[in-house]
Design goal:
The complex is a heterodimer of chains A (500) and B (429). Chain A has 500 residues and is of the alpha/beta class. Chain A is built from 17 helices and 16 strands. Chain A is globular, with a radius of gyration of 27 Å. Chain B has 429 residues and is α/β, with parallel strands linked by helices. The chains are: A alpha/beta (500), B alpha/beta (429). β12 of chain A pairs parallel with β7 of chain B, so a sheet runs across the interface.
Chain lengths: 500, 429
C-alpha cells in the first residue's frame, strides 16, 4: 500500500515486511496501475522518450521510470506487495497448570477493602450509569478472608517456585474508598510485616480519593505506601466528583494533598501520583497544565469506562464522556516541538508506539525474540492479559478476579474466612472457549497482530461478539496516514518512543 | 545505474536512506549496508562522511536537505551509488509540503529504558520469567582422565572439549546433579552437555546415566576417542534412555587403531553420534577429510585449535573477510542481535567439576553450584552480562570499526587469544 501523508510525502507500507518506506510519488502510480491490472513494463515500453508530467511527480524521464520500476520490483521481491500474507492469529491455549503457575508468579494482589465510598462521582463505574457489578452494600472485605488468601498464595509460591527475576509482591488497597476501612489496611500491613513469607520484597499501594488521607498520613508514610490520588483537575474540572450529599469534594481533597506535600515533601515527591478521568468538564491539556503547575507532577489520564454502561442511560453517559485523544491541533504539536522534554506526555504515545511495533520491525519484547526463527513479532489473539499473570483482584464479597477492570460476572474463584476456591481447569476451559469464540472476527481484523482489546470488555454473550478495535483496510489506511503525519510534524517523537 | 534527473541536480532535494539500510559512521570510515540485497558501500571521503553523519544524526531520521551547492562530483557519484544499490534516493523538496521522515532501524526492547544497553536488562526483566533464559547447561562432571592429551588444559577455552586442568580429583556430586535437574524443570532448558575428564571414570556413572535417562532433555555425552576402550558397557545403558547423543572428540596426532575401535563401537550402538575433529593445520584438515570420506562419516564438526604457532592457519581459515561477511548476508535482526547480545553464549551456563558456574568458560565465575538455585546465576548473568552481553561495541579495536555490527559474534577463539580482531576487514590488522 502506498499512502500520502499530510505533508504530501509518499510512503510504501507493508506490515508483513515490515517497514515504512519513503518513496518517490511514481511508486504510488505504479501501485495504482498494478491494482488496476495494468502491465507497467508494457506501459513504459509503449511511451516515447522525453519527459512526462504526472500528478505529484512534476516531470519524469523514461529512464527514471525504468529505474523506479526496477526499484519497485525489487521491493516487491523483498516482501513489499499488495498480496495479503497475514498469518492467522496464533491460538492461545491455556491449561490448568499454566494458570496455577501464573498465579504463583503474580506480582500484585489488590484487595477491594470495602465497596463503600464517601464520594458519589457522576461517572463512577459502580454508579448509576453502569450495570454488571456486584451491588454496592457498604460491605467490607473480611480480614480473615484476606489472610486466608495470602497464606494460599504463599503456599502456591513455595510449591510452584517463583520464576521472576526479583521476588516481590505489591499488596494494594482499593475501594470504594479504602480508607473507610482503615482497620483492615492496618491489620493486613502488620500481618504482612510480622510474618515470614516467600513473597520476597513486599510493598504497599493504595488508590484513594484523598478525602481521608489527612487522618492517616503518618501510617502511609511510615509504610512507604505508593499513593495514587484520584482528582480530575481544578475545582471546575473536578465538578463530577461529589460527596454523598452532593457537595463538591475539591476543596477538602486539595487541602489534604497540600498538607501531605508540606508535611512530607520527600514522600510526596517519590510516592504520590495522580489519576484523572477525562470528561466534558476537563481536557488533556487542562489536566496536564494543572498538575504540572500545582504539584509539579504528571497525571495519568483515563477515559470513562465504556464497559457495562446501562442501555437506558447511554444518552446520559455521553453527556459526560469525552475521548482522551483523537487528534492534536497544530498549535498543540508546536508546543511539543518547542519543548522536547514534554514528549513523555504526548497523549498519542501509546497509539504511536503501537504503530512502530506494527510497521517497523524495530520492537521486540525481549532478547529471546532476536534469536527466534519466526520473523517479526508473534501473532496473538486479542490483547487480553493472561489470567493472574499481572495481578489478582479480590472483591469486598470475596470474589477472585484477574483485574479490577473486569466485570464481576467473570469471577475466577472465591475466598472466604476459611478457604480459597479456584478451579484452574474451569478457568482454562473458559478462556479457551472465549478465544475460540473470537477467532472468526480476529482472523479478519487487520489489527490482529497487535490487538490491545480485552476480551472481557466485549459482550461475550453475543453469538458473534463485536469488537471496537476491529479494523478493516480503509480504517487501517487512515490510521497509518495519521501516524506518519504525526512523525512528520514531530520527528523527535520517534526516537523518544524508541527509548522505551 | 540510474541517471540523476537533470532537474533534481539543480533543485534543492531531500537526500534519504532507506530504513532497511544499516549505516555505521566512524571517525574516518563509514559503511552502508542494504539488508535486503546485501550491497555494501564503504566511504572514506570527508565530504561524504559529513553527509553520512548528518543522515545518521538523530534529529534527521535518515533524511537531510541537500542544496544544489553541495552537489560536487564526489557527492553526485555517491548519490548514483546509493540509488543504484537501492540504499537511498533523492526527492525534490518541491514534491512535499513537510520534511519527510524515515522510521530508521533502532531496536526497542519494550520495558527497557535504554535500547541497546545490555546492562539495563535488569529493568527489562522485572516482569519476566527468568527460567526462560536458560536453554543449555554444560556439566563438566569430573576432571579425571588416564590420558594426558596436549589439549587438556587449553582446548576447552576455544570450544567444547574435555578438560583436566587440576591434578586434584574433582567431580560433581550426583546429589548436586540430581538437585540441578529438579531446578531445571522450571526453566526452558532443553539441552544438557555431559563432559569430563573422562566421563566414564565418574564414580557413579551408571547411576548418573539412569538419572539422566529419566530427564526429558536432549543429552549430549562428550568423550575423547581414546576413552572408548573395547568392551565398555555403559554405551548400552545410554540406549535405555531417549534424546541421547554421543560426541566423539578426535585430536591430532591420530592413533588410528584407537579411532577405528571407537568407530566400530559407536556404530554398533543405536545412540546417534557426532565426530568432532580438532585441526591445527591444513594437513590436519586433509587427514580428517580422508578419514571422513574413507569411513563415510556423516555427522562431523571441525574445530580449529589455536596452539600459539599456527596463526597463519587461522588467518587463512578463521579470520573474517569482507567476502565471508557478505556471504553471511546479515539481516537487520542479525545486526540488532550483534548490537545487544552474544548469541553464542546467550542462555547457556557451564558447571565445572569443582562446582564453579560460568556463563562462558572464559568469563568470570558467577558462583558455586549448590549454594544457590541455578536461576540465581541466570539472574546474575542477566545483570552483569559479562558473557551473554559481550558484543563488539564493548571491545577494542572492534568498537571503533564501522563493520562491528555486521561481524559475527565474539567467539571463544577471540576470548582465549585475548584479541578481538581476527579479521581481514581492514587489511592493516
Amino acid at each position: 500500500m502506498v499512502i500520502c501523508s499530510e505533508g504530501k510525502n509518499y510512503y510504501l507500507i507493508d506490515r508483513h515486511a515490515p517497514q515504512v518506506l519513503l518513496v518517490h510519488p511514481i511508486i504510488k502510480h505504479f501501485n495504482d496501475m498494478e491494482e488496476l491490472g495494468i502491465d507497467i513494463q508494457k506501459w513504459i515500453n509503449n511511451i516515447g522518450s522525453g519527459e512526462f508530467e504526472l500528478t505529484d511527480v512534476e516531470s519524469i524521464s523514461k529512464e527514471e521510470l525504468v529505474f523506479y520500476l526496477t526499484y519497485y520490483n525489487f521491493l516487491k521481491s523483498a516482501g513489499y506487495s499488495n498480496e495479503s500474507k497475514g498469518s492467522p492469529p496464533a491460538k492461545k491455549h491455556y491449561s490448568a497448570n499454566l494458570i496455577k503457575l501464573y498465579l504463583a508468579n503474580s506480582e500484585k494482589i489488590v484487595f477491594e477493602v470495602t465497596d463503600a465510598c464517601n464520594l458519589k462521582c457522576r461517572y463512577c463505574g459502580y454508579g448509576e450509569l453502569y450495570e454488571g457489578f456486584d451491588k454496592r452494600e457498604n460491605k467490607n472485605l473480611s480480614i480473615a478472608a484476606a489472610k486466608t488468601f495470602l497464606e494460599y498464595f504463599d503456599n502456591l509460591r513455595k510449591e510452584k517456585s517463583n520464576q521472576r527475576l526479583f521476588k516481590k509482591l505489591c499488596i494494594s488497597f482499593y475501594g470504594g474508598e479504602p480508607l473507610l476501612n482503615f482497620p483492615f489496611i492496618k491489620e493486613i500491613v502488620e500481618y504482612t510485616k510480622n510474618n515470614e513469607w516467600s513473597h520476597g520484597i513486599v510493598s504497599f499501594g493504595m488508590t484513594t480519593n484523598g478525602l481521608l488521607i489527612n487522618k492517616y498520613l503518618d501510617f502511609l508514610v511510615e509504610n512507604n505506601f505508593l499513593l495514587s490520588i484520584s482528582l480530575d483537575g481544578n475545582e471546575v474540572n473536578n465538578a463530577y466528583r461529589l460527596t454523598l450529599d452532593g457537595k463538591a469534594s475539591f476543596k477538602t481533597v486539595f487541602h489534604n494533598i497540600i498538607t501531605l506535600k508540606e508535611e512530607y515533601p520527600e514522600y510526596f515527591e517519590k510516592n504520590v501520583s495522580f489519576l484523572a478521568v477525562n470528561h466534558k468538564k476537563n481536557s488533556i491539556k487542562s489536566l496536564e497544565r494543572y498538575f504540572d503547575t500545582t504539584f509539579g507532577k504528571p497525571v495519568m489520564v483515563s477515559e470513562m469506562s465504556m464497559v457495562g454502561v446501562r442501555r437506558d442511560r447511554v444518552e446520559d453517559f455521553f453527556k459526560i464522556y469525552r475521548k482522551v485523544y483523537e487528534s492534536l491541533k497544530p498549535n498543540e504539536l508546536e508546543d511539543f516541538k518547542k519543548n522536547p522534554k514534554s514528549l513523555v506526555r504526548f497523549p498519542g504515545r501509546i497509539r504511536m508506539k503501537h504503530f512502530i511495533k506494527e510497521f517497523t520491525g524495530n520492537t521486540i519484547d525481549k532478547y529471546s525474540q532476536l534469536l527466534d526463527d519466526v520473523g517479526g513479532n508473534l501473532v496473538t489473539q486479542t490483547g487480553t492479559c493472561d489470567p493472574f499473570k499481572q495481578k489478582v483482584f479480590i472483591t469486598a464479597n470475596g470474589m477472585i478476579l484477574t483485574c479490577e477492570r473486569i466485570p464481576h460476572i467473570y469471577s475466577l474463584g472465591e475466598v472466604d474466612d476459611n478457604e480459597v476456591r479456584i478451579d484452574y481447569q474451569k478457568i482454562s476451559d473458559e478462556y479457551n472457549y472465549w478465544y475460540r469464540k473470537m477467532e472468526k472476527l480476529c482472523k479478519k481484523c487487520t489489527r490482529r497482530r497487535f490487538c490491545t482489546q480485552c476480551l472481557f470488555h466485549l459482550n461475550l454473550n453475543e453469538e458473534s461478539p463485536q469488537c471496537p478495535q476491529y479494523e478493516d483496510a480503509e480504517k487501517m489506511k487512515n490510521n497509518i496516514i495519521k501516524s506518519i503525519s504525526t512523525f512528520e510534524h514531530l520527528p523527535a517523537l520517534y526516537l523518544d518512543l524508541l527509548k522505551g | 545505474m540510474a541517471v540523476i534527473n537533470k532537474k533534481m541536480k539543480i533543485k534543492p532535494s531531500w537526500l534519504y536512506l532507506n530504513p532497511f539500510v544499516h549505516l555505521n559512521v566512524k571517525k574516518d570510515k563509514a559503511v552502508l549496508y542494504n539488508t535486503l540485497n546485501g550491497t555494501l558501500l564503504e566511504y572514506v571521503d570527508v565530504n561524504i562522511l559529513r553527509i553520512l553523519k548528518r543522515l545518521k544524526a538523530a534529529k534527521n531520521l535518515y533524511v537531510i536537505l541537500l542544496n544544489a551547492a553541495e552537489i560536487n562530483a564526489n557527492v553526485s557519484e555517491f548519490i548514483k551509488e546509493i540509488r543504484g544499490s537501492f540504499i537511498g534516493d533523492i526527492l525534490p523538496v518541491s514534491f512535499s509540503e513537510k520534511k519527510p521522515v524515515q522510521l530508521i532501524p533502532r531496536l526497542l526492547l519494550e520495558k527497557t529504558p535504554s535500547p541497546m544497553t545490555f546492562k539495563s536488562r535488569i529493568k527489562l526483566l522485572l516482569g519476566d520469567e527468568v527460567g526462560e533464559y536458560l536453554n543449555i547447561v554444560t556439566l563438566y562432571i569430573n576432571n579425571r582422565c588416564s590420558h594426558n592429551c596436549r589439549l587438556c588444559k587449553e582446548g576447552y577455552k576455544q570450544f567444547l572439549y574435555c578438560r583436566v586442568e587440576d591434578v586434584h580429583r574433582k567431580e560433581l556430586a550426583i546429589e548436586s546433579i540430581s538437585e540441578l535437574l529438579e531446578q531445571l524443570k522450571t526453566t526452558l532448558t532443553f539441552q544438557l552437555n555431559i563432559i569430563g575428564g573422562d566421563i566414564s571414570e565418574y564414580s557413579k556413572f551408571y547411576e548418573l546415566i539412569d538419572l539422566l535417562n529419566d530427564a526429558k532433555l536432549k543429552k549430549s555425552y562428550y568423550l575423547n576417542y581414546l576413552n572408548f576402550s573395547p568392551g565398555i558397557e555403559w554405551l548400552n545403558a545410554l540406549e535405555n534412555g531417549q534424546f541421547n547423543a554421543l560426541h566423539v572428540l578426535v585430536h591430532p596426532p591420530l592413533k588410528i587403531a584407537a579411532f577405528l575401535n571407537t568407530l566400530d563401537l559407536v556404530r554398533s550402538k543405536r545412540t546417534p553420534y557426532v565426530f568432532h575433529f580438532v585441526v591445527e593445520t591444513e594437513d590436519d584438515v586433509e587427514s580428517a577429510e580422508t578419514l571422513i570420506s574413507k569411513y563415510n562419516l556423516r555427522d562431523i564438526e571441525f574445530h580449529p585449535y589455536y596452539n600459539g604457532r599456527n596463526l597463519s592457519f587461522f588467518k587463512d581459515n578463521i579470520f573474517i573477510t569482507k567476502e565471508s561477511l557478505m556471504e553471511s548476508a546479515p539481516s537487520m535482526k542479525h545486526i540488532f542481535t550483534n548490537m545487544s547480545i552474544n548469541p553464542l553464549d546467550f542462555k547457556g551456563l557451564t558447571v565445572s567439576s569443582n562446582n564453579d558456574v560460568h556463563a562462558n568458560v572464559n568469563s568470570p565465575r558467577l558462583g558455586v553450584l549448590g549454594i544457590k538455585n541455578i536461576m540465581e546465576f541466570v539472574k546474575k548473568e542477566m545483570i552483569t552480562g559479562r558473557a551473554w552481553g559481550l558484543v563488539r561495541k564493548h571491545v577494542s579495536p572492534c568498537k571503533s570499526c564501522s563493520y562491528n555490527f555486521l561481524c559475527p559474534p565474539i567467539s571463544n577463539y577471540e576470548r582465549a587469544l585475548g584479541r578481538y580482531n581476527l579479521c581481514h576487514i581492514w587489511q592493516k590488522h
